[in-house]
Amino acid sequence: MPLESVIHILLIALSHFSYLAIFIFLLLLSLGLAISEDVALLIIGYLVAKGYIAMVPTLAVALAGIGASDAITYLIGYLLGGSLLRNKWLLKIVKPHRVEKGERWFARWGEKAIFVARFIIGVRFQVFVTAGMMRMKFLRFLLVDSLAALLFVPLMILLGYFCSKDLEIVAKWISSSSQRISIVVAVSFFVFVIYKLLTKKMKKVAKT
């Protein structure tokens, strides 16, 4: 779906439901919405930059929405287990070879896989489903996932905020990078955002 269409739909939803629209938008990602969480958060950052929504409540709602989406993904694996791959509807979202990849990740990294997968497109969903299938404790999953989300969500929203003029370029780069997006790249983005904040503050000080 083109970014312009997603933004248009989200703006209509915001006019009717305010910040609840953001929560629902992110929640739908767990049900196979045709964009990644990364791009969704970039769009939300773009809307903050354009003044449609405020930064602080947006961050709070986005964290809640991502957390709820991840919890649903975990519960899909936990409740359905092995029957997951025999469900025709879910097979449209969950591919057997991707579940196998998630199992390999989880077998190799254990709980660390939850944290790392948050920063990697193409692995995240499968690892979270696998965590449920392997009966990882739900509260433990939420703890590890929340720690990763506290870094990931502000990072992506700030990236969308500062790169609002080049939103489509950034979104395409992230989407095409697939599994190459890693913690190293995420940290690089974080450093870039901090740099932008500091230089902006220094310019204001210089003018006074």
Structure notes:
With 208 residues, the chain is mainly alpha-helical. It has helices spanning 3-17, 20-27, 37-49, 55-80, 96-109, 112-117, 124-133, 138-162, 167-177, 183-207. Helix 3 packs antiparallel against helix 4 (55-80), helix 3 packs across helix 8 and helix 4 packs across helix 7 (124-133). The model has no long low-confidence stretch (mean pLDDT 82).
- Determine the N-to-C terminus distance: 45 Å
Task: Please provide the ordered H/E string of secondary-structure elements.
Answer: HHHHHHHHHH
Radius of gyration, in angstroms, nearest whole number? 18 Å
Give unreliable regions as ranges.
none
What is the overall number of helices?
Answer: 10
**Structural class from helices and strands?**
mainly alpha
Structural shape? globular
- Return the average pLDDT rounded to an integer: 82
> How many strand elements?
0
Helix coverage percent: over 70%
Biggest beta sheet attributes: none
Strand portion, in percent? under 5%
Describe, in short, the structure shown.
This protein has helices spanning 3-17, 20-27, 37-49, 55-80, 96-109, 112-117, 124-133, 138-162, 167-177, 183-207. The longest helix is centred in the first third of the chain and has 26 residues, at 55-80. It has ten helices and no strands.
Helix/strand layout:
Blueprint: H1 3-17, H2 20-27, H3 37-49, H4 55-80, H5 96-109, H6 112-117, H7 124-133, H8 138-162, H9 167-177, H10 183-207
Helix pairs in contact: 1-2, 2-4, 3-4, 3-8, 3-9, 4-7, 4-8, 5-7, 8-10
Observed structural traits:
208 residues; mainly alpha; 10 helices; globular
